[in-house]
Specification:
This protein is α/β, with parallel strands linked by helices. It is built from 20 helices and 21 strands. Helices cover 48% and strands 13% of the residues. The longest helix is centred in the first third of the chain and has 26 residues.
Length: 524
């Protein structure tokens, strides 16, 4: 009996070792086999669920909200700007009512396309029109993987996600913290966090608009990392931030302060009301979108009053909640339609659109993937130009998953590939090849196939397209298990992007000085 057990154990061990070696060898080809870095564009026209009359109706409802109900702006500098523009300001309540003609006049000043140039100009991105871009998960306090389970995020996890974001070409920019580095004190977290972003990646970076010190430090660090003068930094967008309203009908002090400082220096601001239908917004989709629209346009109008032509983006994060529990839901039919209709509204105002890849799954299971697939469908079919949380988001934004990052990147690459133009001409119609092979052959070995097979189709990095018996003999690993091997191998092979030693030293000196000065305030 013991001999049989030992033999079976040895057999499983050999199979597991063969599978592990094969997976590692396969994963080491990742950086060579993935899609090339590019600025992708939609080939498909956006989906438009509602007609022009319905778009006008949502617009009119939003204007009525802004004129009659108003929005609270908990920031005296913002109130002064509104008052100077002739808006009705109630200083005691901090409520601002604004004329619809003035709102539309301000919104019309915003650019329809925004070009953001990071420290590596080869990573320059365009937001607007049919261009689209993906960024990794941002801001969860927890991290999870198959080895250690769910736990509080620390700086090492934060850095590893940045390394993955740098390594995968389908990730175009770095959102907020891919996981909150909770081992860093909040007063200096932004300094170490942005230092890691600027040294471990060379892509477009986000900074949190959470008060004066954090955003001023971030702008200075981005300027230093790119080797720019202050004038050159202000001349064009080099970074971006995202602000959320406090729905319903409120914008708070720190995000407004940071957003206004960014706009004043010509840096991109994404305005994304977080309107969950049934909780912070009306339960009807039309009502939730009218509220989203009003809150977003109010802040966009303010930023245009700060600086005419400031690069701003229309952000959409409308979804619904589970009415039994009150928990946020994502990847739902309502979320899909909200993103598509938000695309119609953004185009109505001539603004770029931000959307998200979100799910509410607590485990890396089928729910996590189908909700993300629907989120991406809604975002991309709505024509979103910037897709937040595109890789790694779990648990309604409370966790970031390493395996989910890899699985999402597989979907992102397929989306990018799907949106490539289809070539239809004599060479691709392949009539000669069909004649050559005829009714009794196959196309594996013909010249037409051999000359093109490497470029003919996208080969997924994570999928396993073998028959069941071969797959089982090699260990029978599931996709999330293969994702574990892949992300670990990518981290082992990670190469830090180059940075001039003098610039790095200047960046280190700035961080050290600001830490010695106490960093940022932790209350507002």
């Amino acid at each position: 009996h013991g001999g049989c057990m030992n033999e079976r154990t040895a057999t499983r061990s050999r199979q597991s070792k063969r599978k592990r070696n094969a997976d590692q060898a396969s994963s080491r080809l990742l950086l060579d086999n993935q899609l090339d870095w590019c600025q992708p564009r939609y080939a498909d026209a956006p989906v438009t669920p509602i007609d022009e009359d319905a778009v006008q109706a949502i617009h009119a409802a939003s204007m009525t909200i802004l004129e009659n109900l108003g929005v609270l702006f908990l920031n005296d500098a913002a109130l002064s700007i509104f008052e100077s523009q002739g808006c009705q300001v109630e200083w005691d309540s901090k409520r601002v009512r604004m004329d619809r003609a003035w709102v539309m006049e301000q919104v019309a000043k915003a650019p329809s396309h925004i070009t953001v140039t990071p420290r590596n100009p080869d990573r320059t991105l365009i937001f607007g029109g049919r261009y689209f871009n993906f960024g990794q998960v941002a801001s969860p306090p927890n991290v999870m993987d198959l080895d250690q389970g769910r736990r509080i995020g620390v700086r090492a996890d934060f850095q590893n996600f940045l390394k993955l974001a740098q390594s995968y070409n389908c990730i175009h920019f770095s959102c907020g913290y891919p996981v909150e580095p909770m081992d860093l004190h909040p007063s200096i977290r932004h300094l170490d966090g942005l230092f890691d972003k600027l040294t471990l990646t060379d892509k477009v970076v986000h900074a949190y608009a959470l008060g004066t010190e954090r955003i001023e430090d971030a702008m200075e660090m981005v300027r230093i990392a790119a080797g720019l003068t202050h004038e050159a930094f202000d001349a064009q967008p080099r970074m971006f931030t995202n602000i959320n309203s406090t729905s319903p009908l409120k914008h708070d002090w720190p995000m407004l302060d940071g957003a206004m400082r960014m706009a004043a220096r010509n840096q991109m601001v994404v305005v994304s009301p977080f309107t969950l239908a049934g909780a912070m917004a009306p339960v009807t989709l039309a009502g939730a979108l009218a509220l989203q629209n009003a809150e977003g346009l109010a802040a966009i109008a303010l930023l245009q009053a700060v600086r005419a032509g400031a690069p701003v983006m229309y952000g959409a994060f409308t979804s619904n909640v589970d009415m039994k529990t009150g928990a946020p839901a994502f990847g739902t039919p309502e979320f899909v339609r909200a993103m598509q209709i938000s695309g119609q509204l953004a185009r109505f105002y001539g603004l770029p659109l931000r959307a998200s890849n979100a799910n509410a799954a607590n485990a890396l299971d089928a729910q996590a993937v189908w909700e993300s697939a629907f989120s991406l469908q809604g975002s991309c079919s709505g024509g979103a130009n910037l897709i937040y949380h595109a890789a790694g988001w779990m648990e309604g934004g409370l966790s970031a998953s390493f395996e989910k990052f890899v699985i999402d990147c597989e979907m992102l690459q397929q989306i990018i590939y799907t949106q490539r133009p289809i070539q239809v001409d004599a060479s691709t119609l392949a009539v000669d090849a069909i004649a050559e092979v005829g009714p009794h052959g196959h196309f594996f070995g013909c010249d037409h196939t051999q000359q093109r097979y490497r470029d003919a189709f996208y080969t997924p990095l994570l999928s396993d397209w073998r028959n069941y018996e071969t797959w089982l003999d090699d260990g029978g690993l599931w996709a999330h298990q293969r994702a574990t091997t892949q992300y670990k191998t990518v981290l082992e092979e990670y190469v830090e992007p180059p940075m001039d030693p003098a610039i790095r030293e200047e960046l280190v000196d700035f961080v050290d000085r600001r830490k010695a000065e106490g960093g940022a305030a932790t209350d507002f």
